[in-house]
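Reviewer 2 asked us to include a model.

Predict the structure of this chain.
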Amino acid sequence: MGLFNRQQAAAPQSAHEALAQVPQASTVDVARIRRLPYAADSGISDEAFAVLNLALSGDFDAAEPEFRALMRSGSEPDAAFAMGELGVFLTERPQGSPDWVEGISLLCSTMEVPYRDVVATATWNLAEMLTHADDEALRRNGDGYAAIAVQLEEKTALLVSAERAIDGGDESDEIRRRLDRALQVLDEGSGYWHRAKAALSIFESRDQDEPMRSWFLEARSSVDPDIWQELLSYYVVQGMFNVEGGHASVSSRLFGDCDGACYYQSPYAGCGTCARTLDNFNEVAAGMGDGVYPVLALLDRSDEPRCIAGVALFQDAFTGMPRAGYAGDLWTILSRGAPMVLGRIHSDGELYFSDSSVSYDGGDLVVDLNVVPGEYVVVVWVATPQAMDDTMRPLALGAFSGDLGQRLAREIPEADLAELISGMWGKPDLMVHSHMMRVQEAVAADNWEADREDYYARGLSWIIQSAEAGGEEAADFLRGEPIDFDDALLEAMSRRGLRTLKASWWEPTGNAPTDDFCSAVVMARDDATSHQQLYDLARHPSAFVRRAVAARSDLPPDLLGDLVTDTDEIVRWHIVVRPETSPEMLAALADDPSIEVRAAVAGHENTPVAVLERYAGERRSSAAVASNAATPPSALLHLVDEPAPATRAAIASRSDMPAETLVVFASDPSPDVRRSLAGNSSLPVEAQRALARDEGLWVRSALARNPSLTDDIVAILARDPDDLIRSTVADRENCPP
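Predicted model (structure tokens):
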């Protein structure tokens, strides 16, 4: 017979009898149950989980006999697991039916198995049955079972009981502890896990200043979740994009760089320097900063579904989610945050999600959605802090058209964007970015090598099949921005037959690729490829092949002259960044139409001084010019008032600038500029004194690491209110005791 009776108690004859036979909660020995081992730790078999997955997929008729077989002859953990799960599924049948009555009986029997997790699940399911009964006594018994399930830390009980308590007005510390524990035991990324994050946000918002807290509590519940079910069908992950400047954007066209760095405005207010406007562009901080983020295409409920919205998810929002699924599942994620309308943009049929600058290099990935033309309401969902002493940060950035967009615009309360954002990710000294290695190739590979065994893979399969057939719907699955594919990705493309691709998809230059350009790229990278073969490949009609040639470290010198005039800007960029590129070639590219190429010229150590001085005078690629040690300090003096903080920061970091210029930067409004100045080894004492009392923690932290500080400045920092700064200067020989 084993450690427990595998045969459930005799099934009673009515629903009331079934519930009445449930023992009183007061008789349950909770202390004994808490000492029991977990079935999960005792070895539930893959076979048992396969039966459960079969039932969850909707084929319970096939799963039921398998559950019963495990109860009869499976291992002790499998039998206990099967008994509890079969009881749960049977109680989903109509109340009072023979199956439902048997399910109650099975759950009662499961209370006697020797495994804590199985008993806890049965306890919670009995509680749910009892609390919905007509009889008051049965409902009281259900409350008792619910309390036991919480004591046993049954994951669903922890979450649902906390949600119900909050709905009843209970926001006590006990409920918060219950939610914290739920997050620990729930499967990360599951729907329940996101629900727990959403409930916990109420407590996390307490630590925020006004008006952020009041706004958050009002806005988070402002949107009727039913609109997602009414107006949307599926979501499909259209692709991943990389952020390397801390901010992400949604726009209706692609843009180059902006000398005024307008793409870091929060809230965005338009630009008079570049082509970005309030009608075609908006941006936010990318959650916690740099990273790789998915973009979801949201489809409507028409007979031929159309994309009417796109959403980029930040932080940990997409953890555990499938590549395609029901749009309603997305609401579970968004409910963790509070929505804020940023503005409206007009699209002629495309939306782009990208790093807000789209200017770091030609390898950055941009996700392009083919959408219904029209006006799109831009909404950011803001989540509560992920760390102590942090602020609310964006959780998702979306653009919504049609009825969905109008509903959101009506239901989301109006907000003072400038005031709220200035207290969140718009704080002057808030760090929202980090230094990343190049991730573009890995992201591109991930876009292609998505898990095709996913339960909802039909959405992804549609994209792949459409692309292979040359369908315009998938024409930008991997975006039209130039991408450096690695060999693994090329091989994956070849396996799928993607050897000949439409020029509009793969060739932004308009050059038509020849058959199997994937193999040509692999050959161009192969160390065994001869120089003669490289000459041939350098004239290949596919820009991707020529880029692979230009990127080789052993490129024959006489090929440089051929490739420096290539029609593809990425090929020219590869030539510019090579350390052996001559001053004459760099001078020839000084007026290149590509801003990326000109920036590379401005930063090259071999660029003639005359070119650098001209760039500085014309305020072109100013940040790169200021960072180039070959640029004379005298050429930079008129750039101290440059609007772009990156340029001023580069000048402030140079030790060869005049002292009077460096002193001016000590009062610069940008904390990034003052932080760069603080690390300057030639920092004048007057500037040291000003920065030692700077309100920015990161500014003072950079100053504390400066080796050239005078004794009196070290003494000031030794009394700094921040522990990190005091500890940084503590080991200096001139630090006072």
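DSSP finds 37 helices and eleven strands in the chain. The CA atoms of residues 13 and 43 lie 36 Å apart. We have added this to the supplementary material.
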